[in-house]
Prior knowledge:
Layout: H1 5-30, H2 37-55, H3 62-87, H4 95-114, H5 118-143, H6 146-151, H7 153-175, H8 187-238, H9 248-265, E1 269-276, H10 279-286, H11 288-304, E2 311-316, E3 319-325, H12 329-344, E4 347-350, E5 353-356, E6 359-365, H13 372-388, E7 394-397
Parallel strand pairs: 6-7
Antiparallel strand pairs: 1-3, 1-6, 2-3, 4-5
Helix pairs in contact: 1-2, 1-8, 2-3, 3-4, 3-5, 4-5, 5-7, 7-8, 10-11
Amino acid sequence: xxxxxxxxxxxxxxxxxxxxxxxxxxxxxxxxxxxxxxxxxxxxxxxxxxxxxxxxxxxxxxxxxxxxxxxxxxxxxxxxxxxxxxxxxxxxxxxxxxxxxxxxxxxxxxxxxxxxxxxxxxxxxxxxxxxxxxxxxxxxxxxxxxxxxxxxxxxxxxxxxxxxxxxxxxxxxxxxxxxxxxxxxxxxxxxxxxxxxxxxxxxxxxxxxxxxxxxxxxxxxxxxxxxxxxxxxxxxxxxxxxxxxxxxxxxxxxxxxxxxxxxxxxxxxxxxxxxxxxxxxxxxxxxxxxxxxxxxxxxxxxxxxxxxxxxxxxxxxxxxxxxxxxxxxxxxxxxxxxxxxxxxxxxxxxxxxxxxxxxxxxxxxxxxxxxxxxxxxxxxxxxxxxxxxxxxxxxxxx
Length: 398
Protein backbone atom coordinates (compact mmCIF):
# COMPACT_ATOMS: atom_id res chain seq x y z
CA UNK A 1 0.00 0.00 0.00
CA UNK A 2 1.89 3.06 -1.33
CA UNK A 3 0.74 6.70 -1.32
CA UNK A 4 2.30 9.81 -2.74
CA UNK A 5 3.31 12.28 -0.07
CA UNK A 6 0.75 14.92 -1.02
CA UNK A 7 -2.21 12.53 -0.80
CA UNK A 8 -0.96 11.43 2.61
CA UNK A 9 -0.62 15.05 3.73
CA UNK A 10 -4.20 15.79 2.65
CA UNK A 11 -5.51 12.84 4.64
CA UNK A 12 -3.39 13.93 7.59
CA UNK A 13 -4.75 17.48 7.20
CA UNK A 14 -8.36 16.29 7.36
CA UNK A 15 -7.70 14.28 10.52
CA UNK A 16 -5.77 17.18 12.05
CA UNK A 17 -8.52 19.68 11.27
CA UNK A 18 -11.07 17.40 12.93
CA UNK A 19 -8.89 16.97 16.02
CA UNK A 20 -8.25 20.72 16.14
CA UNK A 21 -12.00 21.38 16.05
CA UNK A 22 -12.61 18.89 18.89
CA UNK A 23 -9.87 20.41 21.03
CA UNK A 24 -11.05 23.92 20.17
CA UNK A 25 -14.50 23.11 21.52
CA UNK A 26 -12.94 21.67 24.68
CA UNK A 27 -10.83 24.81 25.14
CA UNK A 28 -13.82 27.12 24.55
CA UNK A 29 -15.83 25.41 27.28
CA UNK A 30 -13.11 25.67 29.93
CA UNK A 31 -10.98 28.58 28.67
CA UNK A 32 -11.30 30.46 31.96
CA UNK A 33 -10.87 27.42 34.19
CA UNK A 34 -7.48 25.86 33.40
CA UNK A 35 -4.26 27.41 32.18
CA UNK A 36 -2.26 25.72 29.44
CA UNK A 37 -5.20 24.51 27.34
CA UNK A 38 -4.89 27.47 24.96
CA UNK A 39 -1.23 26.58 24.27
CA UNK A 40 -2.23 22.97 23.57
CA UNK A 41 -4.99 24.19 21.25
CA UNK A 42 -2.49 26.46 19.49
CA UNK A 43 -0.26 23.41 18.87
CA UNK A 44 -3.06 21.79 16.89
CA UNK A 45 -3.66 25.06 15.01
CA UNK A 46 0.05 25.32 14.19
CA UNK A 47 0.09 21.69 13.03
CA UNK A 48 -2.90 22.39 10.78
CA UNK A 49 -1.26 25.50 9.31
CA UNK A 50 1.99 23.64 8.74
CA UNK A 51 0.28 20.70 7.00
CA UNK A 52 -1.80 23.08 4.89
CA UNK A 53 1.28 24.96 3.71
CA UNK A 54 3.11 21.69 3.00
CA UNK A 55 0.20 20.45 0.88
CA UNK A 56 0.48 23.57 -1.31
CA UNK A 57 4.07 22.92 -2.32
CA UNK A 58 3.09 22.92 -5.98
CA UNK A 59 1.82 26.52 -5.79
CA UNK A 60 3.91 27.99 -2.97
CA UNK A 61 7.60 28.71 -2.81
CA UNK A 62 9.80 26.49 -0.60
CA UNK A 63 9.99 29.34 1.90
CA UNK A 64 6.34 28.75 2.81
CA UNK A 65 5.77 25.10 1.89
CA UNK A 66 8.95 23.80 3.55
CA UNK A 67 10.55 26.31 5.93
CA UNK A 68 7.44 27.98 7.35
CA UNK A 69 5.40 24.75 7.24
CA UNK A 70 7.93 22.69 9.20
CA UNK A 71 8.68 25.59 11.56
CA UNK A 72 4.99 25.79 12.47
CA UNK A 73 4.94 22.05 13.20
CA UNK A 74 8.11 22.23 15.30
CA UNK A 75 6.97 25.28 17.29
CA UNK A 76 3.57 23.60 17.72
CA UNK A 77 5.23 20.66 19.49
CA UNK A 78 6.95 23.15 21.83
CA UNK A 79 3.63 24.86 22.53
CA UNK A 80 2.15 21.49 23.46
CA UNK A 81 5.04 20.90 25.88
CA UNK A 82 4.52 24.30 27.52
CA UNK A 83 0.75 23.79 27.59
CA UNK A 84 1.03 20.46 29.39
CA UNK A 85 3.52 21.99 31.83
CA UNK A 86 1.27 24.96 32.54
CA UNK A 87 -1.76 22.68 32.99
CA UNK A 88 0.22 20.82 35.66
CA UNK A 89 1.59 24.00 37.26
CA UNK A 90 5.14 23.11 36.20
CA UNK A 91 7.35 25.99 35.11
CA UNK A 92 9.46 25.28 32.02
CA UNK A 93 12.38 27.51 31.01
CA UNK A 94 11.69 28.93 27.56
CA UNK A 95 15.08 30.48 26.70
CA UNK A 96 16.65 27.39 25.15
CA UNK A 97 13.44 26.62 23.23
CA UNK A 98 13.46 30.12 21.75
CA UNK A 99 17.05 29.49 20.72
CA UNK A 100 16.24 26.03 19.31
CA UNK A 101 13.34 27.47 17.27
CA UNK A 102 15.63 30.11 15.75
CA UNK A 103 18.24 27.42 15.05
CA UNK A 104 15.60 25.19 13.45
CA UNK A 105 14.45 27.97 11.10
CA UNK A 106 18.04 28.88 10.18
CA UNK A 107 19.10 25.28 9.43
CA UNK A 108 15.92 24.58 7.44
CA UNK A 109 16.46 27.79 5.47
CA UNK A 110 20.04 26.83 4.63
CA UNK A 111 19.16 23.31 3.49
CA UNK A 112 16.09 24.48 1.57
CA UNK A 113 17.23 27.65 -0.18
CA UNK A 114 21.02 27.42 -0.43
CA UNK A 115 21.90 23.73 -0.17
CA UNK A 116 18.63 21.85 -0.80
CA UNK A 117 18.91 18.51 0.94
CA UNK A 118 15.80 16.62 2.04
CA UNK A 119 17.82 13.99 3.88
CA UNK A 120 19.46 16.57 6.16
CA UNK A 121 16.12 18.30 6.73
CA UNK A 122 14.66 14.97 7.84
CA UNK A 123 17.59 14.44 10.23
CA UNK A 124 17.25 17.98 11.60
CA UNK A 125 13.49 17.71 12.09
CA UNK A 126 13.75 14.34 13.83
CA UNK A 127 16.72 15.21 16.04
CA UNK A 128 15.13 18.49 17.16
CA UNK A 129 11.54 17.38 17.70
CA UNK A 130 12.34 14.14 19.55
CA UNK A 131 13.82 16.00 22.58
CA UNK A 132 10.62 18.05 22.79
CA UNK A 133 8.53 14.87 22.98
CA UNK A 134 10.94 13.31 25.48
CA UNK A 135 10.83 16.46 27.62
CA UNK A 136 7.01 16.25 27.66
CA UNK A 137 7.25 12.63 28.83
CA UNK A 138 9.75 13.58 31.53
CA UNK A 139 7.70 16.39 33.08
CA UNK A 140 4.68 14.09 33.30
CA UNK A 141 6.67 11.15 34.65
CA UNK A 142 9.05 12.92 37.03
CA UNK A 143 7.88 16.47 37.77
CA UNK A 144 4.10 16.22 37.89
CA UNK A 145 2.39 15.47 41.18
CA UNK A 146 0.58 12.17 41.57
CA UNK A 147 -2.87 13.39 40.60
CA UNK A 148 -1.69 15.23 37.46
CA UNK A 149 0.42 12.23 36.48
CA UNK A 150 -2.71 10.12 36.67
CA UNK A 151 -4.62 12.67 34.57
CA UNK A 152 -1.94 12.75 31.85
CA UNK A 153 -0.92 9.09 31.64
CA UNK A 154 -2.42 8.76 28.14
CA UNK A 155 -0.71 11.98 27.00
CA UNK A 156 2.57 10.43 28.16
CA UNK A 157 1.82 7.19 26.27
CA UNK A 158 0.92 9.19 23.14
CA UNK A 159 4.23 11.05 23.27
CA UNK A 160 6.13 7.80 23.83
CA UNK A 161 4.51 6.46 20.65
CA UNK A 162 5.38 9.71 18.86
CA UNK A 163 9.03 9.16 19.78
CA UNK A 164 8.87 5.63 18.36
CA UNK A 165 7.07 6.72 15.18
CA UNK A 166 9.41 9.63 14.43
CA UNK A 167 12.44 7.51 15.23
CA UNK A 168 11.20 4.73 12.92
CA UNK A 169 10.39 7.17 10.12
CA UNK A 170 13.85 8.69 10.39
CA UNK A 171 15.47 5.25 10.30
CA UNK A 172 13.45 4.07 7.28
CA UNK A 173 13.87 7.36 5.48
CA UNK A 174 17.61 7.51 6.01
CA UNK A 175 18.31 3.86 5.19
CA UNK A 176 16.08 3.73 2.09
CA UNK A 177 15.99 7.35 1.05
CA UNK A 178 13.73 8.03 -1.95
CA UNK A 179 12.00 11.23 -0.89
CA UNK A 180 13.55 13.38 -3.59
CA UNK A 181 10.55 12.25 -5.59
CA UNK A 182 7.50 13.21 -3.49
CA UNK A 183 5.22 11.21 -5.76
CA UNK A 184 6.31 7.97 -4.07
CA UNK A 185 6.49 6.71 -0.52
CA UNK A 186 7.88 3.43 0.70
CA UNK A 187 5.32 0.95 2.03
CA UNK A 188 6.90 1.01 5.49
CA UNK A 189 6.70 4.79 5.66
CA UNK A 190 3.11 4.75 4.38
CA UNK A 191 2.19 2.44 7.24
CA UNK A 192 3.97 4.70 9.73
CA UNK A 193 2.13 7.75 8.44
CA UNK A 194 -1.19 5.91 8.78
CA UNK A 195 -0.21 5.02 12.34
CA UNK A 196 0.62 8.70 12.87
CA UNK A 197 -2.94 9.56 11.86
CA UNK A 198 -4.32 7.19 14.47
CA UNK A 199 -1.84 8.58 16.97
CA UNK A 200 -3.12 12.10 16.29
CA UNK A 201 -6.63 10.94 17.18
CA UNK A 202 -5.29 9.19 20.29
CA UNK A 203 -3.41 12.33 21.35
CA UNK A 204 -6.60 14.38 21.01
CA UNK A 205 -8.47 11.82 23.09
CA UNK A 206 -5.65 11.87 25.67
CA UNK A 207 -5.74 15.64 26.06
CA UNK A 208 -9.53 15.82 26.33
CA UNK A 209 -9.44 12.95 28.84
CA UNK A 210 -6.75 14.79 30.85
CA UNK A 211 -9.05 17.82 31.02
CA UNK A 212 -12.13 15.79 31.94
CA UNK A 213 -10.28 13.82 34.63
CA UNK A 214 -9.17 17.05 36.27
CA UNK A 215 -12.73 18.37 36.06
CA UNK A 216 -14.05 15.19 37.71
CA UNK A 217 -11.33 15.33 40.35
CA UNK A 218 -12.20 18.92 41.23
CA UNK A 219 -15.89 18.02 41.24
CA UNK A 220 -15.16 15.21 43.70
CA UNK A 221 -13.11 17.64 45.79
CA UNK A 222 -15.98 20.10 45.73
CA UNK A 223 -18.45 17.40 46.77
CA UNK A 224 -16.15 16.28 49.61
CA UNK A 225 -15.72 19.90 50.73
CA UNK A 226 -19.48 20.47 50.65
CA UNK A 227 -20.05 17.24 52.59
CA UNK A 228 -17.48 18.26 55.21
CA UNK A 229 -19.03 21.71 55.38
CA UNK A 230 -22.47 20.19 55.93
CA UNK A 231 -21.09 17.94 58.68
CA UNK A 232 -19.40 20.90 60.36
CA UNK A 233 -22.54 23.01 60.00
CA UNK A 234 -24.66 20.25 61.48
CA UNK A 235 -22.13 19.84 64.29
CA UNK A 236 -22.24 23.57 65.03
CA UNK A 237 -26.05 23.50 64.94
CA UNK A 238 -26.07 20.69 67.55
CA UNK A 239 -23.18 21.86 69.72
CA UNK A 240 -23.01 24.34 72.56
CA UNK A 241 -20.42 26.95 71.71
CA UNK A 242 -18.80 27.15 75.18
CA UNK A 243 -18.77 23.54 76.36
CA UNK A 244 -18.67 21.74 72.95
CA UNK A 245 -21.31 19.27 74.16
CA UNK A 246 -24.85 19.00 72.79
CA UNK A 247 -26.96 22.13 72.99
CA UNK A 248 -30.52 22.16 74.28
CA UNK A 249 -32.10 21.51 70.89
CA UNK A 250 -29.97 18.41 70.25
CA UNK A 251 -30.42 16.90 73.74
CA UNK A 252 -34.17 17.42 73.36
CA UNK A 253 -34.05 15.49 70.06
CA UNK A 254 -32.18 12.65 71.79
CA UNK A 255 -34.73 12.67 74.61
CA UNK A 256 -37.60 12.47 72.09
CA UNK A 257 -35.89 9.53 70.37
CA UNK A 258 -35.46 7.70 73.70
CA UNK A 259 -39.14 8.26 74.53
CA UNK A 260 -40.16 6.82 71.14
CA UNK A 261 -37.96 3.76 71.75
CA UNK A 262 -39.44 3.40 75.23
CA UNK A 263 -42.98 3.50 73.85
CA UNK A 264 -42.23 0.94 71.11
CA UNK A 265 -39.74 -1.42 72.76
CA UNK A 266 -40.28 -0.61 76.44
CA UNK A 267 -36.59 0.21 76.88
CA UNK A 268 -36.20 2.01 80.19
CA UNK A 269 -34.14 5.16 80.70
CA UNK A 270 -33.69 7.91 83.26
CA UNK A 271 -32.55 11.51 83.21
CA UNK A 272 -30.41 13.66 85.48
CA UNK A 273 -31.02 17.38 85.70
CA UNK A 274 -27.83 19.02 87.03
CA UNK A 275 -27.19 22.51 88.34
CA UNK A 276 -23.88 24.05 89.49
CA UNK A 277 -24.28 25.23 93.06
CA UNK A 278 -23.87 28.96 93.83
CA UNK A 279 -22.84 29.66 90.24
CA UNK A 280 -23.90 33.32 90.48
CA UNK A 281 -21.30 33.81 93.21
CA UNK A 282 -18.48 32.78 90.85
CA UNK A 283 -19.60 35.31 88.25
CA UNK A 284 -20.19 38.12 90.75
CA UNK A 285 -16.97 37.58 92.70
CA UNK A 286 -14.50 36.63 89.98
CA UNK A 287 -16.13 37.69 86.72
CA UNK A 288 -17.67 35.86 83.78
CA UNK A 289 -14.35 34.43 82.56
CA UNK A 290 -14.02 32.45 85.76
CA UNK A 291 -17.68 31.48 85.55
CA UNK A 292 -17.05 30.12 82.04
CA UNK A 293 -14.10 28.11 83.33
CA UNK A 294 -16.32 26.60 86.03
CA UNK A 295 -18.86 25.49 83.40
CA UNK A 296 -16.13 24.08 81.15
CA UNK A 297 -14.49 22.15 84.00
CA UNK A 298 -17.79 20.71 85.24
CA UNK A 299 -18.62 19.67 81.67
CA UNK A 300 -15.26 17.92 81.31
CA UNK A 301 -15.72 15.98 84.56
CA UNK A 302 -19.27 14.98 83.67
CA UNK A 303 -18.24 13.77 80.21
CA UNK A 304 -15.30 11.76 81.50
CA UNK A 305 -17.44 9.84 83.95
CA UNK A 306 -20.38 8.84 81.77
CA UNK A 307 -20.84 5.73 79.65
CA UNK A 308 -20.50 5.86 75.88
CA UNK A 309 -24.25 5.18 75.59
CA UNK A 310 -25.19 8.16 77.78
CA UNK A 311 -25.86 11.61 76.33
CA UNK A 312 -25.19 14.99 77.89
CA UNK A 313 -26.28 18.44 76.83
CA UNK A 314 -26.17 21.98 78.19
CA UNK A 315 -29.73 22.77 79.17
CA UNK A 316 -29.08 26.45 79.74
CA UNK A 317 -26.73 28.66 81.76
CA UNK A 318 -25.21 26.43 84.44
CA UNK A 319 -27.71 23.57 83.97
CA UNK A 320 -27.08 20.23 82.24
CA UNK A 321 -29.32 17.34 81.21
CA UNK A 322 -28.01 13.77 81.05
CA UNK A 323 -29.94 10.92 79.41
CA UNK A 324 -28.99 7.54 80.92
CA UNK A 325 -29.98 4.73 78.59
CA UNK A 326 -31.08 1.36 80.05
CA UNK A 327 -31.08 2.85 83.56
CA UNK A 328 -33.69 2.70 86.32
CA UNK A 329 -33.83 5.06 89.30
CA UNK A 330 -31.38 3.00 91.32
CA UNK A 331 -28.73 3.05 88.58
CA UNK A 332 -29.37 6.74 87.87
CA UNK A 333 -29.01 7.60 91.56
CA UNK A 334 -25.71 5.70 91.72
CA UNK A 335 -24.38 7.55 88.63
CA UNK A 336 -25.54 10.90 90.01
CA UNK A 337 -23.90 10.34 93.38
CA UNK A 338 -20.63 9.37 91.68
CA UNK A 339 -20.70 12.62 89.69
CA UNK A 340 -21.39 14.65 92.83
CA UNK A 341 -18.43 13.06 94.62
CA UNK A 342 -16.03 13.58 91.69
CA UNK A 343 -16.91 17.24 91.16
CA UNK A 344 -17.03 17.95 94.92
CA UNK A 345 -13.45 16.71 95.26
CA UNK A 346 -12.19 19.00 92.47
CA UNK A 347 -10.52 22.34 93.16
CA UNK A 348 -10.57 24.69 90.20
CA UNK A 349 -7.44 26.77 89.87
CA UNK A 350 -7.65 29.84 87.64
CA UNK A 351 -4.66 32.12 88.02
CA UNK A 352 -4.43 32.82 91.73
CA UNK A 353 -8.05 31.83 92.34
CA UNK A 354 -8.77 28.43 93.90
CA UNK A 355 -12.35 27.35 94.47
CA UNK A 356 -14.19 24.12 95.13
CA UNK A 357 -17.30 23.29 93.09
CA UNK A 358 -20.41 21.30 93.89
CA UNK A 359 -23.49 20.29 91.93
CA UNK A 360 -27.08 19.42 92.74
CA UNK A 361 -28.96 16.75 90.79
CA UNK A 362 -32.60 15.94 90.21
CA UNK A 363 -33.32 12.41 88.94
CA UNK A 364 -36.40 11.01 87.23
CA UNK A 365 -37.28 7.74 85.48
CA UNK A 366 -39.43 7.43 82.35
CA UNK A 367 -42.98 6.19 82.97
CA UNK A 368 -45.90 5.27 80.72
CA UNK A 369 -47.85 8.31 81.85
CA UNK A 370 -44.98 10.71 81.10
CA UNK A 371 -44.47 12.91 78.10
CA UNK A 372 -41.20 14.69 77.46
CA UNK A 373 -42.38 17.81 79.29
CA UNK A 374 -43.68 15.91 82.33
CA UNK A 375 -40.47 13.85 82.52
CA UNK A 376 -38.35 17.01 82.50
CA UNK A 377 -40.66 18.70 84.99
CA UNK A 378 -40.34 15.66 87.29
CA UNK A 379 -36.52 15.90 87.22
CA UNK A 380 -36.70 19.66 87.67
CA UNK A 381 -38.84 19.27 90.79
CA UNK A 382 -36.30 16.78 92.19
CA UNK A 383 -33.50 19.27 91.43
CA UNK A 384 -35.37 22.00 93.29
CA UNK A 385 -35.69 19.67 96.28
CA UNK A 386 -31.92 18.97 96.16
CA UNK A 387 -31.23 22.70 96.35
CA UNK A 388 -33.74 23.21 99.13
CA UNK A 389 -32.21 20.38 101.14
CA UNK A 390 -28.76 21.88 101.22
CA UNK A 391 -27.29 21.37 97.68
CA UNK A 392 -24.38 19.07 96.75
CA UNK A 393 -26.80 16.15 96.70
CA UNK A 394 -29.16 14.15 94.48
CA UNK A 395 -32.90 13.83 94.90
CA UNK A 396 -35.22 11.37 93.19
CA UNK A 397 -38.73 12.01 91.98
CA UNK A 398 -40.36 8.60 91.85
